[in-house]
Amino acid sequence: MLGSQMLKSQFPILSRKVNDKPLIYLDNAATSQKPLEVIEAISNYYSQNNANVHRGVHRLSDESTTVFEESRDTIANFFGADVEELIIARNATESINGVAYGWADKNLQEGDVIVTSLMEHHANFVVWQEVAKRTGAKVEYVGVDENGRLKLEELEEKLKTLPVKLVTLVHVSNTTGTVNPIKKIRQLITNHQKETPIRLLLDGAQSAPHMRVDFHQLGADFYVFSGHKMLAPMGVGGLIVKKELLESGEMKPWLFGGGMIFSVLPEETEFNPDLSDRFTAGTPDVASIVGLAAACNYLKKLNMKKVEQHDRELVIYTLEKLQQFPEIKIIGPIESLSQKPLDRLGSVAFIHQAAHAHDVSQILDSEGVAVRSGHHCTMPLHTHFKWQATTRASFSVYSSKNDIDILVRGLEKVRQVFKS
Amino acid sequence: MTDDIYRETIITEARDPQNYGPLKGADINQSYVNPSCGDSIEVYVKLDSDKKKILDIGWEGAGCVVSMASMSFLSAKVKGMSLVEVNQLTQEDLKKILGVEEITPSREKCMMMGLMAIQRAVEGK
């Protein structure tokens, strides 16, 4: 386990109290807290380096350009990607929209099939419904079994029988915690690919904070993430695109204006041949990008392998503790608790048989424990399994077994309040 | 606030709500969903012959203690009320009906769900 007590001290917000109790923050799948290193990096940028990037000759513009470019290098490197493959966006949602406008709209036509799944966050659902309206492509959904795993046989059947052009899946589910078997999925895609390549998009919003992601090893064509879920500020995240798609022009810019051009004439504009610049229209949010790079450095120092191990231990500990409550039904893979490594990460969501999720989280809040309740932006999954709403505890590097013990005490209070 | 909400009276009201179930001969039925949690409610309203007053009400739904107790108390309160009066009910009135002094922004939606459904049901009538 990581030294969570020491880590907690590096996150200023974690020392505050809620309802006169120490804050136990277990809502990290929604957003993580930020370490002082990240907060200071942003603050330093504004107090020391702020100027617009590129094309300025003065000192501050040079400094700003340098930290901007260094930050991009750091972020790309964190994900095992080349810097040209990284497109900065506000978050995973905006990044998926980027793939929709920059790739899907240009490459899909009537009759083509986009395959996604029932376990997707709305960000990886609604965007494709909209693409279908624009292009005439059809969206097909892969089902999820009782244990919260993708029905791979359904995916295979679709790949075999339909003109699939894109498979777009969550890497780690924000509701079931399931880690999808990407190697197997890539293999299935490769096995059934005909002349036209089938592209694979992974929604990494919940994998980036918890596991080592090596884009070149992953087998995805697109990988999207949100900085704010991995200790960075809100409003910055990114899209990583395989270089060949950028070089061939299969993936095109979808935002236009200053910064992304090579030359502009009244009749015609030539886009910037530099791949990074081509996808950066307008002044970038340099301070947030600097903050994201600081978060990547912070996680790298902790070592993502250790972060993943820490997270798995917390997940297992939570599953074991919650299993002691007969009134609680745990969502997602659990029957394989002894399986190593367990194919779930990041969070544990559950249904309380006696109390609604809002009531559970309100009572937990009275004990200083922050969890999330509702449908976690996975309404199709909730509807499919007839879960009205679930309560979710989710972790970060500073989460500890002691936090889970306090959560458990809170759940005992829920039992008291709702005793029949 | 939590102790205020999770009083015996509120929990009991939510567990054994008044006017629960569909209403035969209702003039209007209206559903309402709280998009932040997916909770839903359906109200059935019977009006007087002038369509100016609520004669009877029934409702069904699933939700948290706050939304269920609030809807239950409210359903008793609106029987016999004129539509004008129903449309004038506010968040402050609901807090009084529910017997809570304060409510956080996130739970306001739960408390208001029933009233929203009723007001929508009688809208334009």
Number of helices of chain B: 6
User: pLDDT under 50 segments of chain A (min length 5)?
Assistant: none
CATH uppermost class of the largest domain in chain A: Alpha Beta
What portion of residues of chain A is helical?
40-55%
Q: The biggest beta sheet of chain A, please?
A: 7 strands, mixed
In percent, how much strand structure appears in the residues of chain B?
A: 15-25%
Topology:
The complex is a heterodimer of chains A (420) and B (125).
Chain A lengths: L3 H5 L8 E2 L2 E2 L1 E2 L10 H14 L9 H20 L7 E4 L2 H16 L5 E5 L8 H10 L2 E5 L9 H10 L2 E7 L11 H11 L6 E5 L11 H4 L3 E5 L10 E5 L1 H5 L13 E4 L4 E3 L3 H4 L7 H17 L1 H19 L5 E3 L16 E6 L4 H10 L2 E2 L1 E3 L4 H6 L5 E5 L6 H17 L3
Parallel strand pairs in A: 3-15, 5-6, 5-7, 7-8, 8-9
Antiparallel strand pairs in A: 1-2, 4-10, 9-10, 11-12, 13-14, 14-17, 16-17
Helix pairs in contact in A: 2-11, 3-11, 4-5, 6-7, 12-15, 13-15
Chain B lengths: L1 H4 L2 H8 L12 E7 L4 E9 L6 E9 L2 H14 L4 H6 L2 H8 L6 H18 L3
Antiparallel strand pairs in B: 1-2, 2-3
Provide a compact summary of the structure.
The complex is a heterodimer of chains A (420) and B (125). Chain A has 420 residues and is α/β, with parallel strands linked by helices.
Describe this structure in words.
The complex is a heterodimer of chains A (420) and B (125). Chain A is an alpha/beta fold. Chain A has two domains: 4-30 and 303-417, Aspartate Aminotransferase, domain 1, CATH 3.90.1150; 40-299, Type I PLP-dependent aspartate aminotransferase-like (Major domain) (Aspartate Aminotransferase, domain 2). Chain A is 40% helix and 16% strand. Chain A contains 15 helices and 17 strands. Chain A has helices at 4-8, 36-49, 59-78, 92-107, 126-135, 152-161, 182-192, 215-218, 243-247, 275-278, 286-302, 304-322, 357-366, 379-384, 401-417; strands at residues 17-18, 21-22, 24-25, 86-89, 113-117, 138-142, 164-170, 199-203, 222-226, 237-241, 261-264, 269-271, 328-330, 347-352, 369-370, 372-374, 390-394. A seven-stranded mixed sheet of chain A has the order 4-10-9-8-7-5-6, sandwiched between helices. The two termini of chain A are 39 Å apart. With 125 residues, chain B is of the alpha+beta class. Chain B has one domain: Sufe protein. Chain: A (Alpha-Beta Complex), CATH 3.90.1010.10. Chain B has a three-stranded antiparallel sheet with strand order 1-2-3, covered by helices on one side. In chain B, a hairpin with a 4-residue loop joins strand 1 (28-34) and strand 2 (39-47). In chain B, helix 2 crosses helix 3, helix 3 runs parallel beside helix 6 (105-122) and helix 5 (91-98) packs across helix 6 (105-122). The radius of gyration of chain B is 14 Å and the shape is globular. The termini of chain B are far apart. The mean pLDDT of chain B is 91. Chain A binds chain B through residues 19, 355-359, 362-363, 365-366, 373-375, 379, 382, 388-389, 417-418, and chain B through 2-3, 5-6, 11, 36-39, 62-66, 107, 110.
